[in-house]
Design a protein that fits this description.
alpha+beta; 7-stranded mixed beta sheet; 4-stranded mixed beta sheet; 8 helices; 13 strands; 26% strand; globular; disordered C terminus
Length: 297
Amino acid sequence: MTISDLGEFGLIEAIAAALPRSDRTVVGIGDDAAVLSAPDSRVVATTDLLVEGRHFRRDWSSAADIGAKAAAQNLADVAAMGAVPVALLVGFAAPGDLAAGATVAGGDVSGADSVVLAVTALGDLAGRDPVTRAGARPGDVLAYAGVLGESAAGLALLEAGLTRPAPLIAAHRRPAPPYHAGPEAAGLGATAMIDVSDGLLADTGHLARASGVRVDIDSGRFPGNPALAAAATALGRPGVLDWVLTGGEDHALAATFPAGRELPGHWTVIGQVREGQGVLVNGNPATGRAGWKHFGG
């Protein structure tokens, strides 16, 4: 059955029937607007746009993969503020011949020549202050939770017509951000935090600029990743560091913490915050491409 067969309201009914409903949802899919309960007087909100051919390809990813990717990149932004993801609003445009934690609380559907997803994610701070990009201080350490470089390696494999290592293909098709690590970092006293969506160097640069500090990254602190090493060998690349430093769409969380703060094992300390500006790698200014640029090469 295609979207044309279902029609607008049939599609909405099918989506509503397939998705869980949160206890935070007072009024959900099917009315003019959603109504959500908000125990905290503040709501964390973020939105993103995914366009077919630029952010995903239907010949590489299933509909479920594309939906999960759209949700992940928004929910990771909520987690990066130290909030718990609560709900999603999804705007969905697609050709008529297309086969048909947080919950989807509402949205809109429309016809279009290609698939476009516009997702808004909402989160609950649970009484905590938000963790912004602007709080890092000299003397802090930089740490990350999640994975780095796997989505970029998966994309490189797909572009080369390869399907292994399979975990890297999966990482590109359906990122798995460490959502729990955002509120956890807030509870651990994180001074600044960001979702690594465009690449570690690029996003750490945003954090450094907002905080008015310099961040020194030590590449020797990154743990080994056999899957990345295997992909580099298969593609004839000299190493994996470029993927780790500049690869986007893994949606790891990078955060700064006061020095000496004991962190759980899934947080890896990879650098220091110092006075100054910009990002250094092994003591040298980062050169070349820092990560994904939405309006440029």
